[in-house]
Amino acid sequence: MKRKILNIVVLTVSFFLLTITASSQVLNEGTIKFGRTLSLIDAFYVDSTNLDMLTEKAIIEVLKNLDPHSTYISAKDVKEMNEPLNGNFEGIGVQFNLLRDSIIVVEPITGGPSEKVGIRAGDRILTIDNEKVAGIKITTSGVRSRLMGPKGTKVNITVYRRGEKDILDFTIIRDKIPIFSLDASYMLDKETGYIKLNKFAATTEKEFSDAVTNLKKSNMKNLVLDLRGNGGGYMLAATELADKFFPDQKLLVYLAGRKTPKQEFKSTGNGSLSSARIVVLTDEGSASASEIFAGAMQDWDRGVIMGRRTFGKGLVQNGFYLTDGSMIRLTIARYYTPTGRSIQRPYNEGYEKYMENFYKRFTDGELMSADSIRLPDSLKYKTLVNRRIVYGGGGIMPDIFVPADTSSISPYFNKLGAKNVLNTFSLEYFDRNRTVLTSQYKSFGDFNMKFKFSPNDIKAFIAKGEAEGVKFNEEQFNKSEDEILLILKGFVASNMWQTSELYQIVNENDKVIANALKIISDKKSYNLILGIQ
Questions:
Q1: Cα dihedral 225, 230, 234, 238 in deg (nearest 10)
Q2: Exposed, middle or buried: residue 359 (CB in 10 Å: 0-12, 13-18, 19+)?
Q3: What is the 3-state secondary structure (H, E, C) of 101-142?
Q4: In the beta sheet, which residues pair with residue 199?
Q5: How confident is the model at residue 527, as a pLDDT?
């Protein structure tokens, strides 16, 4: 085994030697030195060692000293890393949750193999391929590893279903299961649509287009696009979306690096939403492809950016496979907005300082006041149409700053979230009341207008928190009560329908969305922000 690992090291070294120029003698000698060090450890070190682990740690440390986003991915993690961006995985197609040490089906994915054989929401999985999985303290990853597998393979499960006398047996043929990047789409008012994206994946453009088509049937003319918490993904998915908002050819983003020639990405001029007003919502969790989209909208004075400063991740990675199936994602270039702004935050002080500077946003007042962000004049740029002042130096500064809303936040509320009490209680509540709720509320509109938790339900929720180690605090509960009940209601709605209904409920108290709707509905105010005369 050790010799095999050393061979991998030598082959890796050889790969690098083949891809560098003859003048790079220092790097050439360094790679040989690294391989020689591992060989000496294997031959002479006093104790037995795990060379595989040492090699991985060394690679991780080397990449960490280059920049914050060059990373090493082990062979077993490569496939799992790619699945969300590829837009699918192979499995049986169920959303599940772990409830009281049993696997409960939240929902079979529409059109998936589980739905086709008759798996229903509320079913409890007892065995998987004759292995007992209930009451064994199974983990989420344990469930996934048993249910996922190559397309075309079989998995046998038994389930308990309320109302059925006998345990039910199912044989399911695994298939490709879609992973959605669009969380929600609905109308905010008679003319304004809302779309929330959680990532930019291979399927994002189609999901977005389908959502827009449906919203246009409801007379959508303008759009609020929510990219808060969207950590990015594929650059091309971001440019495909940006393309829809321009009636002519415009530079959307370009990248350049030491060994990577400058590449420009432009709109086609066929934008189906070129006449729509757009407000893009961002926060400190919006990164990479989200910043590419927001930067293009801002630089061309095409849309209003609202919320808080984005993360500042503008480094381009390319994946290079190593001989054992592992991968290095190596930074090869930087992203620049159309004005020439670098999206990337400085990282010259090292990885630890880079992350420390990000987390300081939560303590130095930046989330509450734009005045706490001080950027030098040297980072000023002017937008390309109306010559408004924007800033480079990392991340996209919003046109309209909206502080984080902490009015309902309390330590009690935070502890409930950390212990997953909100989600667990709502799942248990729906499981107990499934028949009553589905018969009483035939439409989401009816549910949203009429549903309320009873005083006994609230007492049961507080008791659930106590059982999970969250001590009740009346003063803090009163401060957070409205938000707690809204989230619980949203979770119940998502069990009855989809995540879109969840967001439609929890967004009712969202001040950023309220501000966005106010601006986008007033053409004069919207144009004034963008400098349009």
A1: 20
A2: exposed
A3: CEEEEEEECCCCHHHHHCCCCCCEEEEECCEECCCCCCCHHH
A4: none
A5: 96
What CATH homologous superfamily does 182-404 map to?
Answer: 2-enoyl-CoA Hydratase; Chain A, domain 1 (3.90.226.10)
The stretches of 262-418 forming alpha helices (DSSP H) are: 289-299, 351-359, 411-418
In the block, tokens 């991985």 appear at 56
Q: Token match 């929600």: residue? A: 184
**Does residue 4 have a pLDDT over 50?**
no
Q: Which two tokens stand for residue 181?
A: 């990047």
Task: Report the C-alpha gap between 65 and 35 in whole angstroms.
Answer: 19
The rounded distance, in Å, linking the Cα atoms of 255 and 344 is 12
If we measure between CA atoms, which residue out of 252, 266, 249 comes closest to residue 303? 252
- Asked whether the beta carbons of 280 and 397 are under 8 A apart, the reply is no
> Can you give the length of the chain in residues?
533
Return all residues near 247 (Cβ < 8 A) that are at least 6 apart: 269, 271, 274, 275
pLDDT in tens, 235-277: 999 999 999 999 999 999 999 999 899 999 999 998 999 999 9
Q: Contact at 8 Å (CB) between 270 and 215?
A: no
CATH number of the structural domain 88-178 = 2.30.42.10
Rounded CA separation 321/489 (Å): 46
- Mean per-residue pLDDT for 328-348? 92
The model's confidence at residue 13, banded by pLDDT at 50, 70 and 90, is: very low
